[in-house]
Amino acid sequence: MPLCLIAFLLVAIQPGALIDSNQEEICDTRNTTKGECCAFPFTYKGETYYECTTKDFNGKQWCSLNEDFEKHRRWGHCANQTRKPVFDVILDVTGQDGRSRDNIELFQGDIVMTSQIRNNLRSRGILVPNNDPRSPLSRCGGKKLLKRPKRAIMSTNRGSDLRWPIGRSGKREVPYEITASNYNVRGVILRAMDHWMDKVPCLKFVSITSRRSRHLSFFRGGGCYSMVGRQPGSGPQKISIGNGCGYLGVVVHEIGHALGFWHEQSRPDRDNYVTINWSNIRRGMAYNFHKYDTTRVDSRGVSYDYDSIMHYSSTAFANRAGVRTIVGKNGRTNLGQRYGLSKKDIQQANLLYGCGTRPPVTAVPPKPPTPPPPGCGKIDRYAWCPYWKSKGHCRTVPCKNKHKNCEPWARSGYCQSYKAYMDQFCKQSCGKC
Fold first, then answer.
1. Which helix (H) or strand (E) holds 91?
2. Is 263 known to sit in a ligand binding site?
3. For residue 24, what are the contacts with CB-CB under 8 A and spacing of at least 6?
4. 290 is in an annotated binding site
5. Residue 217 in contact with residue 175, Cβ under 8 Å?
6. Confidence of residue 430 (pLDDT cuts 50, 70, 90)
């Protein structure tokens, strides 16, 4: 019986069966010496594995049988089948003509087109065609338009403007709701968020308490699409998980956009690693292969990643079957994958969101119930006096650090990235006096 590959089940392996977060029986687990497939990921004795392993199994590898896949096709593919990258799934469902099935204008196949993106393209001399086949712009190949680069005028994601803010937990909190239209893929969405939180520990997805605040709103639209980064304003920021998008890798990809990630081949240095075959691109779609400069995309020093969950497939926007629009300089054609975050994705996300160097959960001191008295006498008249004293309120010099970690935070650059907090509690370290 052929073996199969089960993709991205956030589950725990016991000697018996795999159980998902909804307590549904997914498949029986077998051990094999053939090594033809693995279950991704699985947890055994407290350790998570993302590839085949022989650890603790007497040299035998743990896999799942084809009969299990037949019951749950959305979780993976059989070992004798060709894998379809995440981006191919997205384009198959959403379409490749610049608009989703529900008529949302898109950039690069799954990014909601905004006036900011359009203005940036125009500032570089790149014209975005409309979707009328009679339009002259729709017949432009786009290659010539790319030859007049100008400085981007869009806001940058090098700062904190695209990131989700720090919440009460001390982590970067992403409020969300899963609308009734997405109830059938609720489990996939929750597993995708769990995967991000597992790999980027300073991120936390929290169920919304108020629909008036900015939050991600998962709904069933006409395809798979999202916006890049936290958008200004309030209310829902929609992320479409339409029919056919309910694969974990696809949802991880769309959440990646919402967290501030562009497609990997949009990097300023992409031409050092991949070749764009302009003649193979669908008519009017060449603008989707636009790359950003360093004022818009900051890769945080992480090298180019052919395996990124955010990478185009090699046939994205191809004008005919059997041709490739993007290939690696090293000849590589299997670009992107479908299982989730690559090692470099994880590294970049942790750098972007400051994991490991951010202020601890206890960084914000508790607020006294009343303002501190003007001075502290010999006899404490308020229960909060010891706390006020520990924070420097009994001293005559007002410009002092109010947290023990102010100095290392200042050295880590938090005087700028967490300006409001640091100005209040770390004035001395930030040179405010």
1. helix 86-94
2. yes
3. none
4. no
5. no
6. confident
